[in-house]
Amino acid sequence: MMNELLEKKYEALKEYLRSLGRVAVAYSSGVDSTLLLKVAHDVLQENAIALTARSSFFPGRELAEAKEFCNQEGIRQIVCAFDELEIENFVKNPPNRCYYCKHALFEAFLSTANKQGIDCVVEGSNMDDESDYRPGHQAIQELGIKSPLRKAGLYKEEIRRLSKILGLPTWEKPSFACLASRFVYGEMITKEKLAMVDRAEQQMLNLGFHQFRVRIHGEMARIEVLPEEFDKLMEPRIRSEIVQKLTEYGFTYVTMDLKGYRTGSMNETLS
Question: What is the pTM of this model?
Answer without folding.
Answer: 0.86
